[in-house]
Amino acid sequence: MAEIITMPRLSDTMEEGTVASWLKKVGDKVSEGDILAEIETDKATMEFESFYEGTLLHIGIAEGETAEVDKLLAIIGDEGEDITSLLAGGAPDGKAEVKSETAEVTVEETAPDNEVETSEIPEGVSVITMPRLSDTMEEGTVAKWLKKEGDKVEEGDILAEIETDKATMEFESFYSGTLLKIGITEGGTAKVDALLAIIGPEGTDVSNISASPKPAAKEVPAEQPKTEKTLETKSAPVAVSTAPAPVTTTNGRIFASPLARKLAEEKGISLAAVRGSGENGRVVKRDIENYQPATGGIATYVPVGEESFEEVNNSQMRKTIAKRLGESKFTAPHYYLTIELDMDNAIASRAAINSDPNVKISFNDMIVKACAMALRKHPQVNSQWADKVTRIAKHIHLGVAVAVDDGLVVPVLKFADNMTFSQIGAAVKELAGKARDKKLTPDEMQGSTFTVSNLGMFGIKEFTSIINQPNSAILSVGAIVEKPVVKNGAIAIGNTMTVTLACDHRTVDGATGAKFLQTLRQYIENPVTMFV
């Protein structure tokens, strides 16, 4: 009897996995203990072995594709066995036995509604869906197709450039054949797992293959990323020479709507000076809004222009920044701690270090190093909030916020506490360059345990940042300012820098954050202590 294998849960926090590579192909014999595939989890790429013997009859998740835990991964059974009912969601007896590495359950469900109907796919045809190219990606935009329908495609050829929430990345084909169909046009945006393309033998009819309605693509014209909408301007008199007489009754009462009376009172306008344009000369709202006082016969010119807006499509990065920062701001109870640092020793130390022609470090490199060392002494700041536990990271991965044209990305320095000033400087320079060129890989942007955001180079003296979740804190770094300070009871010219620590109160108490800043102060104001 055929056995259904689902995406296994290979780590305690794993919610989905990516098939890095298949070591077996459809039709191969499989023995118990054989390695079926390499699966990338949220923590590592791990080998997944088979618990069954038989023939690999079906692969449910292609190489490079991502699926949630318990989604159909493969089917193993007897050679030539009919698995049509399993692919349709049933089994010969009406139920399919679904097994994974961690659980054994019975289900009566159809295939996930974000998959293409397998029964519609002709032999030799491969359906490619929108890949998940980053840990936070929910939808992608096809920036450019490098192949067109009818082109020959070899395994490893670059099919398209796909814009994610963090970067624009090249997407390569895992199949060979002819590009039979393009499911998302250039500039089109679609959910992860939506139909991206179909590859198969030349001339194959794939007109009946379509994506499920759930991940249907949202088309955005590629040739007009910007549109301009012009609003009709309100008409106003260009010149007014005299004030027309209002319409009144025989007893001197002026006809006016209640709203017009209220607006006239707020604006200090006498209703007696306004000509009504309503029924029977009644003064209405528009008359008050368009009223121009008389100027004794001298024309009064009213500025006339065109009201307009420019609409620019939000990029995937912009939309994700809005979503993630909104979630952070309104789920994590932020509080802020600010201190002013004496930078005189730091300036002298940097000058001494940079006197070596082969060394060039920045103040930011010193700050990053100081943060990493302070986190080692205050691990509670290097933590993450979960529903039932607080996860305190034993490693220190520092995110460094980098401004790019579309917004903000946060490349990560892994094990920053073990890096020297020079290593930090070289790594930050390389990652910042890749960020601006949109060449960062997903691995280079994930896993941070603390973040540093520095706007000092823009002359910003002091600011606060929103926590980069799942981190518990972020340090905002301002500019170094020369100003009068008190030293040894006397006023002198000194250099100071203001830093602000934003903390998640669920994990970091005020005293804990204050102690972290005290340690940070010791390192920054006496850089020699970072070499001890």
Can you tell me about this structure?
The protein is an alpha+beta fold. The chain folds into 3 domains: 198 residues, OB fold (Dihydrolipoamide Acetyltransferase, E2P) (Beta Barrel), CATH 2.40.50; 71 residues, Dihydrolipoamide Transferase (Irregular), CATH 4.10.320; 216 residues, Chloramphenicol acetyltransferase-like domain (Chloramphenicol Acetyltransferase), CATH 3.30.559.10. 17% of the residues lie in helices and 30% in strands. The chain contains 8 helices and 30 strands. The chain has a 6-stranded mixed beta sheet, with no helix packed on it. The chain is flat and about 90 Å long. About 11% of the residues have low confidence.
β-strand percent reads: 25-35%
Largest sheet: 6 strands, mixed
User: What would CATH call the class of the largest domain?
Assistant: Alpha Beta
Q: Indicate the structural class.
A: alpha+beta
Shape: flat
Mean of all residue-level pLDDT scores? 82
Distance between the termini: 66 Å
CATH superfamily of the largest domain: Chloramphenicol acetyltransferase-like domain
Give the count of helical stretches: 8
CATH topology of the largest domain: Chloramphenicol Acetyltransferase
Main attributes of the structure:
alpha+beta, OB fold (Dihydrolipoamide Acetyltransferase, E2P), Dihydrolipoamide Transferase, Chloramphenicol Acetyltransferase, six-stranded mixed beta sheet, flat
